[in-house]
Every structure is written in C-alpha cells, then in structure tokens.
Amino acid sequence: MIVWGLTGNIACGKSAVEAVLRAKSIPVIDADHIAREVVEPGQPALAEIAAGFGGGVLLADGRLDRPALAAIVFGDIDARRRLEAITHPRIIGATLERLAQLESEGHVLAVVSAALMIESGSYRNYAGLAVVTCPEHLQLERLQRRDGLSAEDAMGRIRSQRAQGEKAALADVVFDNSRELEDLQAAVIKWLDGLEGA
Fold first, then answer.
1. Which domains does the chain have, with CATH numbers?
2. N or C: which end of the chain has fewer CB within 10 A?
C-alpha cells in the first residue's frame, strides 16, 4: 500500500483536501482526530498532561480543557515541546496501527493527514508529502471567521507553526488554496489521476 502524508498550516485548507480524497474513496487517517482520542479520560496521555501542566488544564468532568492548554502552549515553545513529547509517540503508534488495518483490507493508497507532520518528523514515514498553502492574509481571515478569534490571537496561532514556505520546500506536491474551492478540488483530483496513472 502506498501512503502519502498531507499537511498544511492552520486554516490553509487541509480539511478541504481531505474531503476531496474521501469523496474519491481514498482512506484518510486524520492524525489530528487521533490526537483528540489519545487525551480522552482514562488515557495515559491525559494523566501525563495533567501532571506536567497542572490540574487547571482539566475540566470539572475530567476531560481536557483544550482552550486552557492552548493558552499555555501557544505562547511557550518549551511547553509545546513537552506536550508533543507526551502526545506524538501515541499518535504515531495509533496511526501505524490503522494503516496496517487498511493494508490488510486491501487498500492500495491511503493518506495520513496531520497539522504537525513536519514538526514531528513523521512525514518521513510516507511515500510522499502533500502540503496545502495559502497567503497569510487569507489564513488570518479564515481563522478569525472559523474560530471567532481576535486578529492578535489568530496571528499568534499562525506564527506558532513552522513557516509555510519551509513546509512547501519539503513537499512532493503543493496545493495552492488561494483561489476558489473548486480550483483546490480540481488540483487534488488531477494529482490523484497522476498517481493512478503512474
């Protein structure tokens, strides 16, 4: 089975690419979804996060208080690295388990999608890397509209990630999401057609 990695910075359009892939019956493993699973109540990662960042990152029902944790890690590189050291190995392990399952089911192509694929180094596990990009002003506008953030908070999240240009430089294919959604969809389909014809 051929496995490609897919990444893109916040509000660049990674989810839109995933939607096209799923519509074309390509299985997509969303590592960001797995990241939410590994910090559910009862999971070892949640206990480690609470121990490392304090009880203030937990809600009254024992679930992770994502905004409280985000407020800590988005402004502190060392804190973010400590969080990633807890979560990334578990995310990668669960992803590899799901890929093995897909291969056993006979799939010939799968895509793993993750926001921090390059930061974690996991992109090296795959046959190729696709990166979704868009101009920063569109990224800022989309993020504010999507999450209801102030310009300052939205820009803080954008700047907390590795520069888009650096990610694009590592990519085997770059999807430019600066135009209409239909243009992005067409680019993804063209790429898929090329893979199938290879």
1. 2-31+85-197 (3.40.50.300)
2. C
